[in-house]
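[INFO] parsing input record for ACO12 thioesterase
[DEBUG] input buffer:
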Amino acid sequence: QAYLSYSNVAALTHLAAKPGWEITRTLDDIKIWTHEEGDVMSFKVEMQVKIPSYQAFSLLSNFVFRQQWDKHFLTCEVLQAVSEEEKIYYVTSPPTTGHKPRDFVILVSQRQPCKPCEPYTVAVRSVTLRAVPPSPEFSRSEILCAGFQIHRNSSSSCTVCYFNQVTSGVMPYLAANLAGSSKSIEDTALECIKFLE
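[DEBUG] output buffer:
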């Protein structure tokens, strides 16, 4: 378990530090970046938010709030509080045309910065729990690496970066074209900013 938590945070930190991110869209308070490597595509959504970084961290690290702003989260419940910094959640997503609704079992690891220049981190990855086997009603899906890094800008503002790494298998859900998917990412980012502020 300790290894899983460590590798969860390390994977997100590694993804964030990768060279070769390409910016695909810029709006007032949102920038969308992509990174492609083989059949793995990663997204980074950078949001400027007018609240202190610790407050954004507290709101974003509790995934039960996620339904309030992310329409991809239909339900979200805590299955297990492993420690103060780690929780395992069960999440369901609404069905997309022609597909069954999806479900996820995810480990969410949260870390406060050790130094002032470091970001707050909320890392997410799929895990397997014997107690929650795949069910025929849902298509069990996997999150390779996702999460938030929250950087302090000032005492009352921060930059929230959301990362998500997907394999080509998940791409159809994100819409056949990137324009469509960046629109959906954009809408979700706007909802996130509205929720935080």
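[INFO] Residues 11 and 121 are 11 Å apart (CA to CA).
[INFO] shutting down worker
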